[in-house]
Write a structure and sequence with these properties.
The protein is an alpha+beta fold. It has 7 helices and 14 strands. It has a single domain (about 1-270), classed as Endonuclease/exonuclease/phosphatase (Deoxyribonuclease I, Chain A), CATH 3.60.10. The chain is about 25% helix and about 25% strand. A 6-stranded mixed sheet has the order 3-4-2-1-14-13. It has a 6-stranded mixed sheet with strand order 5-6-7-8-12-9. Strands 10-11 form a two-stranded antiparallel sheet. Helix 3 (about 125-145) packs parallel to helix 5 (about 185-195). The longest helix has 20 residues, at about 125-145.
Length: about 270
């Protein structure tokens, strides 16, 4: 079975539902994970996804901020909503995908952006972001299987993780070292979360670390293509059990040119499961 998973920070699902529908018709992923839906559950546009065959849906939203959703053609065997750092701010949901055999666990994450000041002592948003990463590293560490069982743990984590960890995940490593999303503190905690589950960075399986790779361009860049001051904030991770199943990745850069575009573009990966 081929399984294509897409992740996209949509920056308001109701405002950009036409773009979402266009993308789903164009790329036809089996599963779409959205972040920053900015939509309370009772107003989520379920009918649009139902009409396109995404009959299995897990949404957790709130008015104006945050919000995550998993829209799937593949049935769920279980779902869960996780509250992080003592908050109920709609940032982490989990579904078990029925792909035959052991289900594939899928995490959809929207990790806090962290504000503008890279100092947790004076910026509560940045402190929250660091705490969120610490909590995720502990949580995944608690679920890390024993070595003999590791082959059987099929898990994928996707989302807007709001960290560009590698030198060429940002347009200027030197200039962004003190800018939130690429600071050494964040990159270190990202690495600890990665190590907690031995995650595979799926896009970087195909694109060498020495090559530039972005998924986000600020709205402040009036000609984003010309300046190309991007960052890779959106990620797809897979456990070692899926290593041999990873077939391809794609970052849909063209969508940044669409009318009413999000500042993020979709990231997709295909697995043979």
């Amino acid at each position: 079975m081929s399984l294509t998973v897409a992740t996209w920070n949509i920056n308001s699902v109701r405002l950009r539902i036409a773009n979402v529908e266009r993308f789903l018709k164009l790329r036809k992923p089996d599963v779409l994970c959205l972040q920053e839906t900015k939509c309370p559950d009772e107003l989520f546009p379920h009918l649009a996804f139902e009409a396109l065959g995404y009959r299995h849906r897990l949404v957790q939203g709130m008015k104006s901020y945050n919000g995550v959703a998993i829209l799937s053609k593949v049935p769920f065997t279980a779902t869960d909503i996780h509250h992080r750092c003592g908050k109920e701010d709609c940032r982490h949901i989990e579904a078990a995908l029925d792909t035959g055999g052991d289900p594939i666990l899928l995490d959809n994450l929207y990790i806090p952006a962290g504000g503008d000041v890279a100092d947790p002592a004076v910026n509560e948003k940045f402190a929250h972001k660091l705490d969120f990463y610490r909590e995720m590293a502990r949580w995944y560490g608690d679920r890390r299987p024993k070595p003999r069982a590791r082959r059987g743990l099929r898990r994928i984590a996707v989302g807007d993780l709001n960290v560009a960890p590698l030198e060429h995940d940002v347009w200027s490593h030197k200039q962004l070292l003190k800018i939130v999303s690429h600071t050494p503190m964040e990159v270190d905690l990202f690495g600890k979360m990665m190590a907690a589950m031995d995650w595979i960075d799926v896009p970087r399986r195909f694109v060498p670390a020495a090559e530039k790779l972005y998924s986000w361009w600020s709205y402040r860049n009036h000609d984003w293509r010309k300046s190309n001051r991007g960052r890779r904030l959106d990620h797809i991770l897979a456990t070692p059990a899926l290593s041999g199943s990873i077939r391809s990745q794609h970052i849909d850069i063209e969508l940044r040119d669409w009318a009413l575009a999000s500042d993020h573009v979709p990231v997709l990966a295909t697995f043979d499961v």
